[in-house]
Amino acid sequence: MNSDIAVIDNPVAESLLGPHSPLGRRLGQAATYLPGVSTFCALPTKPEAADWSDLAELLGSGGFADMFSNPAVPPPDWDPVFELEGRQMIWPEGLPAGAGEAAADAETVELGPDDVPEMLDLVARAAPGPFGPRTCELGVYVGIRVQGDLVAMAGERLRPPGWTEISAVCTAPEARGRGHAGRLVRALVERILSRGERPFLHVADANTGAVALYERLGFTHHAAVTFRGYRTP
C-alpha cells in the first residue's frame, strides 16, 4: 500500500496535480477545480506573491478562494469569508473488523449522474459541507434509499497519491439514528482499501457527533487543521 503520509499535508494540491488534473484549471503553481466540481484552490505550502496573483487571475475579481487547510495567509487586499477549526483523521493500516459485510449490504447503492438532483436536495437538507452539481465526478458516491427516496449518502473527494478522502457523509433529518452514515463510510473504506489506497477524512471540531462516529469506525486523529476561505480583490 503506497500511502506516503506527507501528501495529505496539502491534499488539494496533490489531488489537482494527480488524478483530478482533468477536473481542474491551472496557472503557474496556482490551481483550482472547474466550476461546479469544487471551490477548493491549491497553492504551494509557502506561496509567493506571484502565486497569489496567478490564483486571483484564475478566479477573477471577487472570486471565492476556498483554501481548504492550506495555512498560507493571502495578501491583505483579499477579504476573509470564513475560518473553521477542524481535524484530519486517517484510517490505520489493515482491514476493518467484519470486512466484506459492507460490500454485501444490499441497501447500499452506487450513485451516478442521474442521481445528482436528489443528491443536491439531500445536501441542502443535511448540510454536510460544500457540494456542487459536478462534485460526484471526483470519485465514487454511494447512498441508501428508503421507499425509493435517497436518505443518506457518502462519497470520495480528494485523491492525493495513495489516499482517498471520504466526504459528503450525510443523512436526511428524518432518517437519522439508524446507522446509515456508518454503513456508507464502512462501504467506502472497504472499496478504497481494495484499490490499495488508504482512507482519510476531514471533520469540523464542532461536529462532535461525526467525530465520535469516525472514531468508533476506526479512524484516528492525525492533525489539527484550520479551513479558510477568501474573496479575491
Automatic annotation (TrEMBL):
Keywords: Acyltransferase, Transferase
Residue ranges occupied by any N-acetyltransferase domain in the UniProt entry: 106-233
Keyword flag Nucleotide-binding: no
InterPro entries registered for this protein in UniProt: Acyl_CoA_acyltransferase, Bact_Acetyltransf, GCN5-like_dom, GNAT_dom
Pfam family, one: FR47
MF (Gene Ontology): acyltransferase activity, transferring groups other than amino-acyl groups
Alphabetical list of PANTHER family matching this protein: AMINOALKYLPHOSPHONATE N-ACETYLTRANSFERASE-RELATED-RELATED
Protein name: GNAT family N-acetyltransferase
Organism field: Streptomyces typhae
